[in-house]
Write a structure and sequence with these properties.
The complex is a heterodimer.
Chain A lengths: L4 E5 L2 E4 L3 H13 L3 E4 L17 E2 L8 H11 L6 H17 L9 H5 L20 E2 L6 H13 L4 E2 L2 E8 L5 E8 L4 E6 L2 E4 L20 H9 L3 E2 L4 E7 L10 E3 L9 E3 L7 H4 L9 H13 L9 E4 L5 H10 L1 H11 L1 H4 L5 E10 L2 E2 L12 E3 L16 H23 L7 H12 L12 H15 L6 H18 L14 H25 L21 E7 L5 E7 L7
Parallel strand pairs in A: 1-9, 2-3, 2-10, 3-6, 10-18
Antiparallel strand pairs in A: 4-5, 7-8, 8-9, 11-17, 11-19, 12-13, 12-16, 14-15, 15-16, 19-20
Chain B lengths: L1 E8 L7 E8 L6 H12 L18 E4 L2 E4 L8 E5 L5 E3 L2 E2 L1 H11 L6 H4 L3 H7 L2 H10 L7 H5 L12 H13 L8 H10 L5 H4 L7 H10 L4 H9 L4 H7 L1
Parallel strand pairs in B: 1-5
Antiparallel strand pairs in B: 1-2, 3-4, 3-5, 6-7
Helix pairs in contact in B: 2-7, 5-7, 7-10
The chains are: A alpha/beta, B alpha+beta.
Chain lengths: 576, 245
């Protein structure tokens, strides 16, 4: 089977269909560049953004300011955040947020006005925040997605949807010169020549069996960036959410939230009918931070004290009707899914319901500086795929503050670079060869092979079992071994049986699998290296925080293409 | 639970057919779970589209037992017939969403800048009524599943004029957003003249706040006579649809 390819040329390509990528594309286009927007999903703006609750932390309360916010983010990140980046977010979030109204978006102004008052939309001050900071939106994140999508369409930015990037191309001098993508809809490769590339490829939720992220966040961006030669930082830092749906299968791991959202009456029980959160946080019990909450739920289930179906029980009988009302208004979609999943009574908290913890956010990623530069000329990165802002743990609502503040800066930096840069020497022959190399495994015929989805499930199983909210040395080591086995012995036996390339899920899976295993290995190796517990990285063999570990784990690509790990002092230069 | 699933297989250039599967699945499964199972265990070439699994991305809309709905939140039944929405097809249950979006893109005006309209944020705040905010919020709770587009008797993907109910919704969103210039009379007249006001589009809208109902309601009050006549004299008015949902 011969898969065709098409050659295209743009000034700047933005990879990744969430809000960070959208804002970068909008800024670069408004400045005058010829921009293309490449996304893995079909939604106009999707990514992780569309899955979010829409909460944004802003320095809007009287007395609050960038310095106070900075301290809170650093404290939550256990001081291994990049201070320059944190300052950019803390200081600029308000302005960046209101600038969104230039993108076809009307903010939920009623909620803004009632901030801090007794309005039913507002939540109490979030855990770890010195002031009430949450902007909540009655559309959850759909409002942001709508606005940004319309602006991109109205600016006539060409959009390549359902298109997955498979290789980043550099010229002989090491400058970025393009990328190779595969269009799932059309069943063909795209060789795109460009001067600058902004990666906004999001997190790695789909490496886990249970995740609040959508299926497109399979972590392929990290492997692409590594392959291109960028450094990656804090790859061990994975955040988990305490309460998520256990069923139906398709909804498994999707977010319900945290106990604090459900009000003070909520209690968690294990399968033996015991309350247990006091074992993990004697003081705050159920109302602990999300890392400890997820760890508690995970431990009960893993150690066999869960319900027979591997869940814990949430009992919120005795709730305050005003809080149920607030929940319905502020999280209308989550409420609707609760009713669908558990029935009307449990959905309205009149009966207990079951929940599991699941992967939620990824703090690590591509190492960037305050201009969103990656170290490779022409390659920029922004959003969840980058490391630095959140350190070892993310504070609630800071993911949106981050992408709204830094997304446009990535677009600006890419434009500034493109404007002055000499055209890279694009080698079409080399690009063609790269397409062939990517396609080759998909044409393989093996007698006793593995289908791509099977390998995907193997990776997810290894990652979920060994790199969850509670880790231990031998398990991490076994994860490395198993992932290396998948990489060396299983993936070479992967085959694609679907003969029709048009909208072939199997081809999509097959292109993702080799990248997913690389990313999973980076998570495992970083987790093995950090022999302490810090933030969301918790190891039972090193349960305490070690001051000697006030540094970052950085992965770089060695001469032989292998992963080289080292530690690095925390990036500390505060912006003038 | 034992289920029998008849699922459409086909491409635009081949004669489609229904393939039947009998399987035993957990009773808590959604229809999308069944599609995953078929892809994993029976037919590696089955095409279906989804991203979120929680009725947010709108990508898994299809017709199940003659009702257009989201496969991720449609509970299974003992016997199910599954086919794509009535829009240009790519393969099996996957429709060409890009083509629909491109069609709408044609009619969208260039974006403006708030600074062109207001001198300050406060000025915009003052100019923004509570009703505008509420309308704007409700109109932007759509997840672009395209069920409305597939139900519209006036929408034709090969006709460059009327952008269909989804286009109507997009234009209404812009018109109701005080941060953007209102739409031209020409655009509004085009919509008013094209929409017959039958309300079929809004009937199966899976969005909780029914954004399309509001868009139709706002259009009904448009001064263009054509639509007012239709809306008032037509057999189904928007309100009737609203109540029936």
């Amino acid at each position: 089977m011969k898969i065709p390819y098409e050659k295209l040329t743009f000034d700047i390509v933005v990879l990744g269909g969430g809000a960070a990528g959208s804002l970068a594309a909008i800024r670069a286009k408004k400045l005058g560049a010829n921009v293309a927007f490449v996304t893995k999903e079909s939604a106009l703006v999707g990514g992780a953004t569309i899955m979010a609750g829409g909460g944004t932390s802003l320095t809007q309360s009287p007395g609050d300011n960038g310095d106070v916010f900075f301290k809170d983010i650093m404290k939550s990140g256990q001081q291994i955040n990049d201070k320059g980046l944190v300052h950019m977010v803390a200081d600029n979030c308000m302005k960046a947020f209101y600038d969104l109204e230039n993108c076809d978006l009307l903010l939920d102004r009623d909620n803004l006005k009632h901030q801090g008052s007794a309005s039913m939309h507002t939540v109490k001050q979030g855990e770890g925040h010195a002031y009430p900071r949450a902007y909540l939106d009655r559309r959850e994140a759909l409002g942001f997605c709508h606005g940004l999508a319309k602006t991109i369409e109205r600016l006539q930015i060409p959009r390549f949807t359902e298109t997955i990037a498979v290789k980043i191309l550099k010229d002989k001098d090491g400058k970025l010169c393009g990328l190779i993508c595969y269009s799932v809809i059309e069943g063909k490769y795209l060789i795109i020549e460009c001067k600058a590339l902004v990666m906004a490829t999001g997190g790695l939720g789909a490496l886990y069996e249970e995740t609040t992220n959508s299926t497109v966040l399979s972590g392929t961006g990290f492997a692409l960036a590594f392959d291109a030669g960028t450094e990656l930082k804090d790859m061990e830092m994975v955040q988990f959410m305490p309460l998520c749906f256990p069923y139906p299968k398709i909804r498994r791991g999707k977010i319900i939230g945290m106990c604090s959202l459900l009000g003070p009456s909520v209690k968690l029980y294990n399968g033996l009918g015991e309350r247990y959160m006091h074992k993990y946080d004697p003081e705050r019990k159920e109302f602990t931070t999300r890392d400890i909450g997820a760890r508690g739920n995970y431990t009960e289930i893993k150690e066999g004290r869960g319900n027979p179906d591997g869940t814990i029980t949430v009992d919120n009988r005795g709730f305050d009707p005003a809080i149920l009302n607030r929940w319905k208004t502020a999280n209308p979609f989550r409420y609707r899914q609760c009713v669908q999943t558990y029935g009307k009574k449990a959905g309205n908290w009149e009966e207990p319901f079951e929940a599991i913890p699941a992967q939620h956010f990824f703090m690590g990623g591509i190492k960037i500086n305050t201009k969103m530069e990656t170290g490779i000329p022409g390659l920029f990165a922004v959003g969840e795929c980058t490391a630095g802002v959140h350190g070892a743990n993310r504070l609630s609502g800071v993911a949106f503050a981050e992408i709204f503040s830094l997304g446009p800066i990535a677009g600006q930096s890419a434009f500034d670079y493109f404007k002055d840069a000499q055209a890279p020497k694009f080698d079409e022959k080399a690009a063609e060869a790269a397409v062939k190399a990517v396609e080759k495994p998909l044409e393989r015929h093996v007698a006793k092979g593995y289908r791509p989805y099977e390998i995907k499930q193997m990776i997810q199983h290894v990652v979920s079992m060994n790199l969850g909210p509670v880790r231990v040395g031998p398990e991490i080591e076994s994860a490395i071994k198993e992932l290396e086995n998948i990489k060396d012995n299983i993936i070479p036996k992967m085959y694609v049986s679907d003969g029709d390339p048009r909208y072939s899920r199997e081809r999509l899976d097959a292109l993702e699998v080799p990248l997913m295993v690389e990313t999973a290995l980076m998570v495992a190796k970083s987790a093995a290296m950090r022999t302490e517990s810090r933030g969301s990285h918790y190891r039972t063999d090193y349960p305490d925080k070690d001051p000697a570990w006030l540094k970052n784990v950085v992965i770089s690509r060695g001469k032989d293409g292998g992963m080289e790990l080292r530690t690095e002092a925390v990036a500390g230069e505060v912006q003038a | 639970m034992k289920v029998k699933v008849n699922i459409y297989k086909g491409t635009p250039d081949s004669k489609g057919k229904y393939v039947t599967y009998n399987m035993d699945v957990p009773a808590t499964d959604m229809v999308l779970d069944i599609l995953e199972k078929i892809y994993h265990e029976y037919d590696p070439s089955l095409s279906y589209r989804y991203a979120c699994g929680i009725a947010r991305c709108g990508e898994c809309a299809m017709v199940i037992n003659d009702v257009p709905c989201l496969a991720c939140e449609r509970q299974i039944e003992p016997e199910m017939t599954i086919r794509p929405l009535d829009l240009p097809l790519i393969k099996d249950t996957v429709i060409n969403r890009r083509q629909v979006f491109d069609h709408i893109k044609e009619i969208l005006p260039e974006p403006g800048d708030i600074d062109d309209i207001y001198d300050s944020f406060e000025e915009m705040d003052e100019a923004t009524s509570h009703r505008k905010i509420e309308n704007s919020i409700r109109l932007t709770t759509c997840f672009e599943c395209m069920i409305c587009q597939s139900m519209c008797p006036r929408y034709r993907s090969d006709d460059q004029g009327f952008p269909g109910p989804l286009g109507l919704l997009f234009l209404t969103q812009m018109n109701e957003n005080p941060a953007q210039r209102p739409l031209s009379e020409k655009d509004l007249d085009m919509l008013a003249a094209s929409c017959v006001g039958c309300g079929k589009c809004a009937r199966f809208c899976p969005a909780e706040k029914k954004p399309l109902h509001l868009a139709l309601e706002l259009l009904k009050h448009h001064p263009a006579k054509a639509v007012t006549a239709h809306m008032v004299d037509g057999k189904t008015t928007v309100q009737e649809v609203d109540e029936s949902v």
